[in-house]
Amino acid sequence: MALYELVLPKMGESVAEATIIKWVKKPGEQIEIDESVLEIATDKVDSEVPSPVSGTLREIFFKEDEIVQVGAIIATIETEAIEIQKETPPSTQQLTPELRIEIEEHVQRDGIPNLENSDQEERIKPIDFSSSTRFYSPLVKSMAAEEGISSAELDKIKGTGSEGRVTKNDIIDFISSGKTEQKIEITKASPLSITAPEPIQERRTSSVSVSGGDEIIEMDRMRKLIADHMVMSTQTSAHVTSFVEADVTNLVQWRDRIKNSFEKREGEKITFTPIFIEAVAKAIKDLPMINISVNGTQIIKKRDINIGMAAALPSGNLIVPVIKNADQLNLLGITKAVNDLASRAVFQN
Fold this sequence. Notes:
This protein is of the alpha+beta class. It folds into three domains: 2-79, CATH 2.40.50.100; 118-204, no CATH class; 254-346, Chloramphenicol acetyltransferase-like domain (Chloramphenicol Acetyltransferase), CATH 3.30.559.10. The protein is built from eight helices and 15 strands. It has helices at residues 97-110, 138-147, 151-156, 168-176, 221-236, 249-266, 272-286, 331-346; strands spanning 2-7, 17-23, 30-31, 36-41, 46-50, 55-60, 67-69, 73-79, 215-218, 292-295, 298-301, 307-308, 311-312, 318-319, 322-323. A four-stranded antiparallel beta sheet has the order 1-8-6-3, with no helix packed on it. A four-stranded antiparallel beta sheet has the order 5-4-2-7, with no helix packed on it. Strands 9-11-10 form a three-stranded antiparallel beta sheet, with no helix packed on it. A hairpin with a 5-residue loop joins β13 and β14 (318-319). The longest helix has 18 residues, at 249-266. It is elongated.
């Protein structure tokens, strides 16, 4: 018996990852050569991944709706074939003098250690994950080994993937935070001096405030693609503004008819602004999915309906004070809030 490692195949020059839509085969089921094992989706195409060997699906490493990097091991298949030893890269002693010089020049230029045989230099020791109780994908293990992140350090990383799993971005964030140091050491036998690389600049992300009553909705694959393409379009496309005219003749006539009596009765002048704010608040209440924020791949559905209004300062600048819980106010309450904010803006220093 032998185990064949099924990897996610490359599906184009610009495709680096794919989402697992469905596992056609389950662990323990028989698979024939070229028979579909799972269905995947990228931002370009949906396709099936066939099996290059026949045998029994023994283990799968990713669940449906998980994102997998190209080249990652996604499953193992038990076959009847004789296990073939994987080729190991030749040591530098087997290289020609010309190729050896080229490698050393590359090392000196890019700052990569030239690892000789084990008698002369220390190699990067593989990380022992036997003591860890968490699941790590082959990609995460590979990145951890390359960056010298120990199993203990890896266990402390808070995963953002499915069921708290550590993802590629979690590793990148951990490295950029400066919590890891270069683990590669060169012995005196090495003719090269290696300097530790500078930490990756921390990515700037906008923080989104979340209150206790807000609902967090994880985006599905389609919404993620839409969000990515919308952000990309803001960087690559010219922008226009669309206007739609509405006939508010009846609104104007109603306001003209009641404005004097309203001011006499309530002591407040009624303008068009509170009328429009009341209309917007009612629309948001009917269509709550327009009152959202986006935080990465999460949709923050806001419970409170807070509406900002532009107010001019004496200096000519504009500020946007906010009427909180506008949906809980009637027209009189909104009118008082609008007039109060507008009057305070006038006397703003």
